[in-house]
Design a protein that fits this description.
This protein is mainly alpha-helical. The chain is 51% helix and 5% strand. The longest helix has 14 residues, at 17-30. The model is unreliable at 189-196 (pLDDT under 50). The chain binds zinc ion (2 copies). One zinc ion (ZN) is lined by residues 90, 92-93, 95, 117-118, 120-121. This is EF-hand domain-containing protein.
Length: 196
């Protein structure tokens, strides 16, 4: 949640004045009893009235960073950021995705609903999905600059090339294996990192 909080503040700080004022108006509107903070009841009322019933009521505890039982302006800003721009939940275990997560590249590229997984579910294969090409969110962003030449997708880019495999098998010298891996990741071009 700390990451979302930081991101929400960063967006706010870079937003034009009128947008910042709208954020404050939203906070004041939420605060129906005018005590300067958002209680659990005010939070639940907002979710129900505005059609965000899919957000877990327990999410309030996650948002309440200082554990004082209510939400301040910055915590409400984090809520706004999560419901408007994220709303990403692991399809395996239904937790809110924070930080690093994996997404199905086929679903992402199709423009339809994305299929996202937390690291644990992806690592332990705790999901059932009809596509196999997954990428973590950081790598996905960098891949938008284009993949290395000669690689159709990220899985091909990451797969060792047969020739390099053979070389590594006959000589298990650490350096040579490492260079072979680097070459494989770069799709055959030595010294080119895939994410650079
Ligand atoms: Zn999960
Ligand atoms: Zn998919």
């Amino acid at each position: 949640m700390e990451e979302f909080h930081e991101v929400a503040i960063a967006y706010y700080n870079n937003a034009p004045r009128n947008l910042q004022r709208l954020a404050w108006s939203f906070f004041l509107a939420l605060d129906s009893d005018g005590d300067g903070q958002i209680s659990y009841t005010e939070y639940i009322n907002f979710l129900r009235q505005c059609g965000y019933g899919w957000i877990s009521s327990n999410f309030f505890k996650d948002l309440d960073r200082n554990r004082d039982g209510c939400l301040g302006f910055w915590e409400v800003l984090t809520l706004y950021y999560v419901i408007k721009t994220r709303g990403l939940w692991c399809q395996g275990c239904q937790t809110c995705l924070v930080g690093l997560y994996f997404t199905c590249v086929s679903c992402f590229d199709s423009g339809s609903r994305t299929y996202d997984l937390c690291s644990a579910c992806y690592k332990q294969k705790k999901f059932s999905h009809n596509h196999t090409n997954f990428m973590d969110n950081h790598l996905l962003l960098r891949s938008k600059r284009g993949l290395p030449a000669g690689t159709a997708n990220i899985n091909l880019a990451l797969a060792p090339r047969p020739a390099i495999n053979a070389a590594a098998a006959v000589d298990d010298d650490l350096m040579q294996s490492f260079q072979a891996l680097e070459t494989g990741v770069a799709g055959g071009k030595p010294n080119t990192c895939i994410v650079m």
